[in-house]
Amino acid sequence: MKIFLGILFVGLSFVAQAQHTISGTITDTNNQPLLGVEVFVEELHKGTSTDENGYFELNNLPNNTIKLTIVFLGYKTQIKTVELNIATTELTFILEESVFKMDEVIISTPFNKLQSENVMKVEKATIAQLQNKGMLTLSEGISSLPGVSTIATGTGIGKPVIRGLRGNRVLVYSQGLRLENQQFGDEHGLGVDASSIESLEVIKGPASLLYGSDALGGVLYFNPIKFAPINSFNISGGQTFYSNTAGSSTLFSAKQSYNKWKFLVNGSHNTHSDYKTANDERVTNTRFNETNFNTAIGYNSERISSIVRFLYNRSIIGIPEEIGVQSTSKEKMLPYQDLTTKMLSLNNTIFLNNSKISTVFGYTENLRNEFEEHDHDEHLEQDDHDNEAHVEEEDHESEEAALQLKLDTYSYDIKWHLPKFNSIETVIGVQGMHQKNKNFGEEILIPDATTNDVGVFVTAMYQISNSSFQGGFRFDTRNISTAYHEVLHEDEIHIFEAIDKTFDNISASIGYKTLLFNTVISRFNVASGFKAPNLAELTSNGVHHGSNRFELGNTKLKQEQNLQSDISFEYKTDHFELVANGFYNHINDYIFISPTGEVEDGNDVYSYTQENAKLYGGEFGLHLHPHPLDWLHLNSNFELVVGKQDNGDYLPLIPANKLTNTIRAEFNNTNTLQNGFASITLENTFKQTNISEFETKSNAYNLINVGVGGTVKFNKLYFDVNLNVNNVFNESYISHLSRLKSDGILNIGRNFITSIKFKF
User: Most exposed among 77, 212, 367, 648, judged by the fewest C-beta atoms under 10 Å?
Assistant: First the structure.
């Protein structure tokens, strides 16, 4: 904490004497001024909007080159690079109408280009867009994006799957930090709530060049909520109700921004009872509740932009085992997990003469407690006295957590954006983390351990005419060392041998974007990535209650190394869009868990093994906006993925192929109703017959979801009102990625979701 404050104060001392201002007007093609156009400088986290005359002004800007983003619903997004070498710069923008969604700035890639300019294809969606689809949880909303699925246990536990890869192969970023919360486990949620997020981006494919180990399968990048426009105060709140789980979600937010300083605070509380299947049965102990709190302080001058963010997330999640007691109670019942994540981050951008340095320093604390009915077995360790001193006092009632894990992570990310040279943009950087895992319960799932990561990289982008090239190299090293443990369980001693392993790797990528036939945006990318074995894969030796199996690690595991090729084509006119994305991903030494046929402590034994593997498939979509029916949108997306071992066997937990068709009507009455919509979506999930040796086939099913909503305006007060019905016809189905599938438990039935939010 002292280090972060010291860096902050050093950063705040970079205040230059000169004032730099950008002002101007924004009109449409008929020279009519546009009111409410967002003018934003992403690297400064600073923005404003135009007045009734189309005028805007931003001051206190750096003596440097910045990127100004102009965004307005219904018009094409513009990014203008502005060199601020004089005190006042005046600009004029003319926006062209766009019937399709706005082109968006991509933050998860190093050069912050518009999606249409980006060499790497990235999926992006705002939280508002996902909520308009009626999502029950953030994980469910993410799975509506092409190429993204969720492996879930009930409704409260979900983890992202990108093109068939999951767990530690998919890196999650929040507040510019790696989200470190024992994410190798499938039996708990993301640890992030939608209330703290503005939008999300998905890199589908190896991103080890930019993010290091664990980005072999892709990256899920959460952009935090924005501050209010300068010299303004915003307040908002809302309530959402869910019929199926008798659940509710409450949120509140307040923002205040001045010329240099800005503040925000927001929070939410979600609570749900056991979900109900289409057979009118509640799945016992799928109840959960989640509390989220987020606050941030920002400062910017002519030389530096600094933001300190703090995130608190606590989830109490039931671990379902059967359909038993039928209840709408939201009170916790055994077994359950109590998960708390705290994240503190400091983001700085320091502007030099012709370049800039961006840094992120962070600390993450994750506490994972698992409560169950158990006998208090004797726990033999060399550091018992240390454990006794740390055992949590709060909320343990009459029982004590059998499993108690504390994960502390210190991370850093430093990038130098070099001066632009002959249309070449270059970034060099260093990233890393220091992580400690500690046990305090009577059971041990993974041992006490220390992990150290260091990675250095260089990446460059060259633009000429309608073409762009991007590539780079990276070197990483990861060291994992663990402690020796002996655990007595049911008269048997489980031994965790101490290990000390180092994994080194060189990653590389190269990509090319061009405009074929002056109409088709084409992207070609080849990238390598890697994933070091995690603690569970190396060292597990005990019952994993979240998955109801006895897991054995394998200390001889090698790191995974992959090579993926991607090809993407986008054809766009004013009224038609066609997209095709294909990929082929070969992974050496793919790590997966497989049954041994043995039984230990009354549970089937599973062990980790390796085999070369390949995954291939893609996403294909079209968007029709027929003229002159300007209010009508027809969307269709098909996604498929096949995963096989080199020996011919299929990989486990590969999502079934899916076709999604949506009819959406949009309407606006500028006086009272804005962003109105009505939609109907048909999801056709195909039969999954490409299964591993310990899986069973999954049947096809069809779901229909409908939604209607919009923004109602009263003076300066805005109300967002939504009504969604998911699984309208109460279809009985089991997802292939449901971890309750082996017990024959159905997924959630019909769900009415009603939401009202206010803001002014």
Answer: 648
